[in-house]
Amino acid sequence: MEGAGVQSLSMASDPQSDGAPILTAAQQRRSDRVFLLCLAILGGTYVLLLLATVLADVFYTTPGHLWRALQSPEIRHAIRLSLLSCSLTTLLSLWVAVPIGYLMTRIRFRGQSVVDAVLDIPIVLPPLVIGLSLLILFQTAPLRALERVFPVTYAVPSIILAQFMVACAFAVRTMRATFEQISPRCEQVALTLGCTRSQAFWMVVLPSARKGLLTAATLAWARALGEFGPILVFSGATRMKTEVLPTTVYLELSIGNLEGAVAVSLLMVAAAVVVLVLIRTWGVEQPLNRSL
């Protein structure tokens, strides 16, 4: 019985047992090169498409177009409002993402999978639907009463709220991944030494998550900068009032100023490049403290 089992195992591992041809070393290398070349062609096509779109914008406009765009009062207002709203959105996103990410990784509770799915809703929903949902929400009686005192819809607060709805979801995912990479052993040691849970969090966990915080902040800021659909529906695109950079591109296109739209787009591309550099340089490290 044992001899028969060994014989069948050796036949299964023998390439000649099922009629497969034996390749020489040169043939195997040639086959590997062809396979990798096919993969490179498929992936490289997408990479070339991305580079082509950016280069098309760069070569379409001129420094003069960019300078005239920066001199426009409407575009300068949009830049200032975008910087303000994106910064506030980033702070709010971190304020929410840090506790959610920590609780989702350290505490197990009933319905956790449901909460996890709810947190992904802003990522999978079409942006226009998010803006429409916010608009309908603020048509309810309690929020209509609030707007009589503190206007939100079609005002600057609506821009921040629309950006926050989407950007916060990305910050939550980043912070959850960060806390998952931090070994809980150091936290447990701090607890056994007499620290409270909050002291262990502020003194041990949060300092270890500083690079994840930076990554979450840059991702939230960049995502907020690129929001268009929710802002268009919930805030409108009023010049010098609720105009941010994405809606500036839309407005410039609507009046036929393609050069101005491309110039503003290049400003957003430059901001995206800065964000990518920050993430690549200071982003989340490899799993932290796993060796502890």
Tell me, briefly, the overall form. globular
Q: Averaged pLDDT, please?
A: 84
Q: Could you tell me the strand content as a percent range?
A: under 5%
Q: What is the straight-line distance between the termini?
A: 48 Å
Q: Please describe the biggest sheet, giving its number of strands, its sense, and whether it closes into a barrel.
A: none
CATH domain class name of the largest domain? Mainly Alpha
Task: Please tell me the CATH architecture of the largest domain by its name.
Answer: Orthogonal Bundle
Let me know the CATH homologous superfamily of the largest domain: MetI-like
Helix content class = over 70%
Structural class: mainly alpha
Spans where pLDDT lies below 50 across 5 or more residues:
6-13, 286-292
State the helix count. 15
Model description:
By secondary structure, this protein is an all-alpha fold. It folds into 2 domains: 32 residues; 221 residues, Orthogonal Bundle (MetI-like fold). The protein is built from 15 helices and no strands. Helix 3 packs across helix 15 and helix 4 packs parallel to helix 9.
Helix and strand arrangement:
Blueprint: H1 2-13, H2 25-60, H3 63-71, H4 73-106, H5 112-119, H6 121-124, H7 127-137, H8 141-149, H9 156-181, H10 185-192, H11 197-208, H12 210-225, H13 229-234, H14 245-254, H15 258-282
Helix pairs in contact: 2-15, 3-15, 4-9, 4-12, 9-12, 10-11, 12-15, 14-15
